[in-house]
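Hypothesis: this fold can be encoded by more than one sequence.
Test: take the structure tokens below, design a sequence, compare later.
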């Protein structure tokens, strides 16, 4: 199998122009870039499909290698349908932007600039968090476990505080006046 150099050159030019147009601020140019990328992808699938062969109808006289593979054609048809849907969606967005703002360019706003200027290190998010963050430490009965902990201004046995953290705790009593724990 030999490579068709003309087809590869056209495909490379379509990919290059499509990516260049995607980087523009105009929605119309972004749409054209998407269309060029879709067409370049169709050419890529066509080039990888191999040479044209016989129709994929089975006869006993034809060798298996002589048939044409229908999968690349089906993939290209699927790609055409998807690119048509994306084109229709982008045309709707372009039309709505034109009706609302009478411009085709996407502008930076203040929030975009603020996010771009923030440093990558955030002292709050990137701080070292201790292993135990609960005010009720879970007691495992080890020798270094505290006997009492301070909870809401009063001292409480650590075993009771740990039991409060467990699912289905029965340490709280029902308040008869309010009907809550």
């Amino acid at each position: 199998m030999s490579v068709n150099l003309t087809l590869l050159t056209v495909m490379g030019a379509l990919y290059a122009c499509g990516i260049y147009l995607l980087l523009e601020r105009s929605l119309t140019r972004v749409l054209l870039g998407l269309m060029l990328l879709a067409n370049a992808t169709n050419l890529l699938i066509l080039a990888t499909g191999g040479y044209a062969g016989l129709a994929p109808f089975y006869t006993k006289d034809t060798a298996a290698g002589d048939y044409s593979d229908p999968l690349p054609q089906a993939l290209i048809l699927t790609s055409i349908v998807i690119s048509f849907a994306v084109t229709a969606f982008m045309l709707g967005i372009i039309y709505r932007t034109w009706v609302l703002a009478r411009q085709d360019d996407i502008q930076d706003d203040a929030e975009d600039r603020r996010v771009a200027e923030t440093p990558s290190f955030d002292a709050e998010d990137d701080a070292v968090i201790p292993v135990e963050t609960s005010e009720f430490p879970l007691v495992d009965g080890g020798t270094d476990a505290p006997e009492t902990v301070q909870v809401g201004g009063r001292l409480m046995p650590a075993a009771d505080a740990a039991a409060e953290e467990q699912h289905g705790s029965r340490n709280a009593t029902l308040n008869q006046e309010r009907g809550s724990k």
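Residues 71-101 form the longest helix (31 residues). Strands lie at 148-151, 154-157.
Hypothesis status: open.
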